[in-house]
Amino acid sequence: MTAIAAERYTGASIKRSEDPRILTGAGRYVDDIKLPGMLHAAFVRSPMAHARVLSVDVSAARALPGVVAVLTGAELEAITVPGPDALMALVGWAGPTPEFTLLATDKVRLVGDPVAVVVAESRYLAEDGCELVEVEYDDLPPVVDAAFALDPGSPPLFANLGDNIARLHSRHEFGDVSATFARADRVTDLHIDVHRHQNVPMEGRGCVASYDPDSGVMTMHASTQSVHLTKIAVAMRLGMEQDKVRVLAGDIGGSFGLKIGASREELAVAAASRQIGRPVKWVEDRGENLTASGQAREESFDVRAAVSSDGDLLGLDVKMVVDTGSYPGTGAMVPDLMEAMLPGPYKLAAMGFESIGAITNKATYVAYRGPWASETFVRERVLDLIAKDLGLDPVEIRQRNVALRTDPPAVMITGRPLVGVTAKESLERVAQLVDFPAFRRRQAQARAQGRYLGIGVATFIEAAPGPRSPEGPSGPMGLESMRLRLTEDGIVVLFTGQMPHGQSHQTTLAQIAADEFGVPFEQVRVVVGDSAVVPFGLTGGSRSATMTGGVALHGARQLKAKVLDFAADLMEVSAQDLLITDGNVWVRGDPASAISVTEVAQRAASGPSGDGAAELEVEATYDGGEGGWSGGTHCAIVDVDAETGIVKVERYVAVEDCGALINPAVVEGQIRGGVAQGIGAVLLERSAYGEDGTFQSATFMDYLMPTACDVPRIEIEHLETVPLDADVNFRGVGEGGMIVAPPTVVNAIEDALSPFGVRIYEQHLPPARILELIAEADPGGERR
Amino acid sequence: MADITLRVNGATRTGSPEARKTLADFLRDDLNLTGTHLGCEHGVCGACTVIVDGRAVRSCLMLAVQAAGSEVTTVEGLAPDGEHGELGPLQQAMWDSHSFQCGFCTPGFVMQATAFLSDHPDAGEQQIREALSGNICRCTGYQSIIDGVLLAAQRNRTLRNRTPRNRETLSEERR
Amino acid sequence: MKLPEVEYEAPTTVAEAVDLLAEHGDEASVLAGGQSLIPLLALRLARPEVLIDINRVDELSGVSAADGHVTIGAMTREYVAEESGTVADTLPLLAAALPLIGHEAIRSRGTIGGSLAHADPAAELPAVARALDAEFVVRGPSGTRVIPAAQWFDGYLTTSRRPDELLVEVRFPAAGPGTGVSFEEVARRHGDFAIVGLAASLVLSGGVISDARLAFAGVSDVPVRATAAEDLLAGARPSAELFDEAARRATEDLDPPADLHGSSDYRKTVAAAVVRRGLRAAADNAARGSN
């Protein structure tokens, strides 16, 4: 049965309830926390990429006034439980599992590897203490790229692995690969590289660990995407029972995949707090964040494409190498996601995919907004390159290859049905919003004046959460839970394991619950950030719109039913005759009968006959319903200065389908933020290592972030979506912008440079590289 | 350590910071004004922006002792009753425009935009983008922030067209 | 990224500051605007024993024009110079360069003297000073010295200021009639240091160029005068061909540094583009001025 309640919040850009505190500086981020007796930690970090640690002398540091404790890697191992990365353990990773310690003990494996932790009365003093720690290193040859890592001659970073392979070679085939390639009119071989770049939230990692020796409880104030995952990670490593660890989180200054579970440093700080018996705060500075927190996306692809002379993309055969950095985790797991998503919304007859993961002396590969994004980059680059070979228009080749919406739906060659995918419609809409013929005329005029404009498109889908699958709940992270309660003050409270870090859940979930239950928006509160109080949850994977929106909707409905049952007794009517609208319970057809929800709640709390309160609370779960895909087509127009290599994004259009919108302003903000990161990746951002393993982008002077002058107005058009579910058609949108923007922009740049014959097989295009590409394609300078 | 006296958000405040302590850390740690955030501590991201003697400055690039005798305004000073009271006009316009997401960069943007609008009340979009290009946001792609500033400027123009005295109100906010 | 321990002095007169410098010599760093020095301290790359904070030395601020020269006190804030009518009228090249320095908040604190004493070869003000043959007035225990720009910039982040000397003011020649200027810069983002920049000043009279002054930012460890190009331009009439040839001469002997943002060849290529564009803009600026 569909909702009776008038939908007046859902679908509207309701102002955020988070904003008053955000705008007045009253947000509470982890560095704002001050506890009595709190100390501050700083880490001694390796200046070398790969070295044996011969000795660590902390005596001078310990003697510095204001320093309370210094712990080395070995000392921390003695007070914690050894083990692998918590996330890998949780997902049951069966591949190579390097043994590693919280802080480096016998070896350092990246520039910035923590070697000791200094705990002092202030961060200033802790850093002073770090300078007094003397570490003797014995240089080892650095493994600075995947190619060397995969060479059996490279020095293994982990003794227990014996080599530098994070993920064993695996090959899967879908459809008949050899037959498809044999019958193709042409087979194209190419190599595509995606460069290393990183999350860079404005707030880095950090925590305040507070161990209470009397109760044996560890309270962690964390900056995290899931208080429960952090709790599990801390409990595991500290050898504590999970109910002795409580994780609290307030406002989180962004994460984009970085802050999941607990990092080695956070675990070290927790152990230090327990050892010292006082709260210890650690907040990473920007240098630590850029150097050691984690990096992403460094992947390379050998691609074979089987193509018909009319432009049908028949098959893809891809060999992927991922540079997982020094302490493998997510990087080893990401090829599986890529393989599943590579076909996108297109008809492919066959696909082969193999991958291998390499361990190198770089920061660990972590999840970064759309961790599998390179599949879209590879596929959308390949489509454009094929189009150029065949003289086809980029929109045309996509229209030719995109799967039509059929019933039953087309199925990706890798198994998932493309239910409700509006890729074809998004391509058509882009062609309506952007006048391609007019652009081509302007482009020709500009070229005559020595100016190089280009246009590019790219199409994508993301599993947000993905279609209903026979295996179970939509999406890989299981059922979503929520506790909903009507408090005695008449407030509808939602307890969720979601941990918003910019997603505006405290507003969007309240919108849904308010509509479904029948109270004003102001009468709903969303509680997050306390592992003792909220059910399990994780904000990530672009799933919350469906999973949490859905559990809020169904949970509110269940709570309403419970409340109406109670109210029915109270009002001596049948529950079926009761409505809740605008915060009042009333008998249908009799407005005078209305009593406020608050009054009902008060009556419930005092008990109808004084013999105990009626609990107006439900625990709801949701499996995602029909789930579904999000996706769309983006288009960029760029202006490339062929004398300096500077690229300006002149116009950017996003046509997207993310199902029903809970809050359009929130959706659009997510898309624009993701696109900005994509523009940054192509034009500005690179985590740079030298040949000797030195890290070269440890400040914002060298790791360049896009600013207000680098990101144009992004025009967004929402497609009318295909409803799949009776109630929940909200779909996620968090990652899409970042997935599809890089190929959109690169496609546009290649189009701008086509007079020179430039072909682009990489993602990072700083000005110097643009000039190199032009010079390589046109060495004689004839086409300039 | 020297004793310093300064005015912060209209109130006289004192402290004894070490010479090496930045104004940002002094505000956050000694005065408990944690609205000013640290995003990089090397003067690039703008999250630490406050107004000192009428000018927007990066508080991570000033020593606390250098602010002795100065008038400092932090984000907390723009809405005297904080999150539960009435917001300043720029903050209100940003709320109405859905300017922010995670909020970590917000105080820096609010202070930089406040200073900028005070000097350039009729600035257009490109000028605003350039003026705010020294503040980094990772969440929004900037458009919603620019829209908030444009809305504040537009509302201020409407007010100014009605009453000549409101220009004073705006420049007072900076102090 | 917290600053290391350091002693701190805050003199209120030039004499006091000079005494402190005499006492501490190269163990001391002078703290002016702090926009370059404080990041170095925060990164613990600079480790002075003593910080001599000259922000309270009021006599070091001010802009004054007399006898065809403009004197700017070392502690004059960049934003003050930017808003100065005197600078706008008499030092158009400086006026053109100032808005390119970082962002407004940087210019709120950054100083003319501080930037020139820091001497980052990729910064705008050193190129302006070099182009205009500015004079640097320093005061030490033994008195005052005047150092011409050609000798001031001594190497990467190095000037010929002795450790016991304080930069007090910088003198620029006022622009004469018929002057046209430009500061053309290629940077990764708005407000960034130049990958390559060019400070250009030309005098046009009767359609002929005289007194061409060109100085590069970002092509070496110091700002570089493009004298070969200047010689070509003197006495010539502006044209695209002239500017192309000037660009060739200005860049053929350059050996710019390579870094994350570009190879040496890249900087050379960009330098040529910057010369062409900068000369065109300066010539247009001069032509407009003489109408």
Going across the biggest sheet of chain B, name each strand in turn: 2-1-5-3-4
Total number of beta strands of chain A: 26
Mean pLDDT of chain A: 95
| Average pLDDT metric of chain B | 93
Known CATH architecture of the largest domain in chain B: Orthogonal Bundle
How can the largest sheet of chain A be summarized?
Answer: 7 strands, mixed
Helical percent range of chain A?
25-40%
User: What spatial form of chain B do the alpha-carbon principal axes imply?
Assistant: globular
- Integer-rounded radius of gyration of chain B: 16 Å
Annotated CATH topology of the largest domain in chain B: DNA polymerase, domain 1
Distance between the termini of chain B: 27 Å
Describe this structure in words.
The complex is a heterotrimer of chains A (784), B (175) and C (291). The longest helix of chain A is centred in the C-terminal third of the chain and has 28 residues, at 544-571. With 784 residues, chain A is α+β, with helices and mostly antiparallel strands. Chain A has 21 helices and 26 strands. In chain A, strand 21 and strand 22 (590-596) form a beta hairpin. Chain A is globular. Chain A folds into three domains: 1-30 and 491-575 and 582-605, Aldehyde oxidase/xanthine dehydrogenase, molybdopterin binding domain (Aldehyde Oxidoreductase, domain 4, 2-Layer Sandwich), CATH 3.30.365; 33-140 and 199-292, Aldehyde Oxidoreductase, domain 3 (Alpha-Beta Complex); 299-467 and 629-777, Aldehyde oxidase/xanthine dehydrogenase, molybdopterin binding domain (Aldehyde Oxidoreductase, domain 4). Chain B is α+β, with helices and mostly antiparallel strands. Chain B folds into two domains: 4-75, Ubiquitin-like (UB roll) (Roll), CATH 3.10.20.30; 86-174, [2Fe-2S]-binding domain (DNA polymerase, domain 1, Orthogonal Bundle). Helix content of chain B is 38%, strand content 12%. Chain B contains six helices and five strands, in the order E-E-H-E-E-E-H-H-H-H-H. Chain B has helices spanning 23-30, 89-96, 106-119, 125-131, 143-162, 166-174, and strands at residues 4-8, 11-15, 49-52, 55-58, 71-73. In chain B, strand 1 (4-8) and strand 2 (11-15) form a beta hairpin. The longest helix of chain B is centred in the last third of the chain and has 20 residues, at 143-162. The relative contact order of chain B is 0.15. Chain C has 291 residues and is of the alpha+beta class. Chain C folds into three domains: 7-53, Uridine Diphospho-n-acetylenolpyruvylglucosamine Reductase, domain 2, CATH 3.30.43.10; 58-173, 2-Layer Sandwich (Uridine Diphospho-n-acetylenolpyruvylglucosamine Reductase, domain 3); 179-289, Enolase-like, domain 1 (2-Layer Sandwich). Helix content of chain C is 36%, strand content 26%. Chain C has a five-stranded antiparallel beta sheet. In chain C, strand 12 (196-205) and strand 13 (208-217) form a beta hairpin. The longest helix of chain C is centred in the C-terminal third of the chain and has 26 residues, at 264-289. The chains are: A alpha+beta (784), B alpha+beta (175), C alpha+beta (291). At the A-B interface, helix 1 and helix 19 of A face helix 2, helix 3, helix 4 and helix 5 of B.
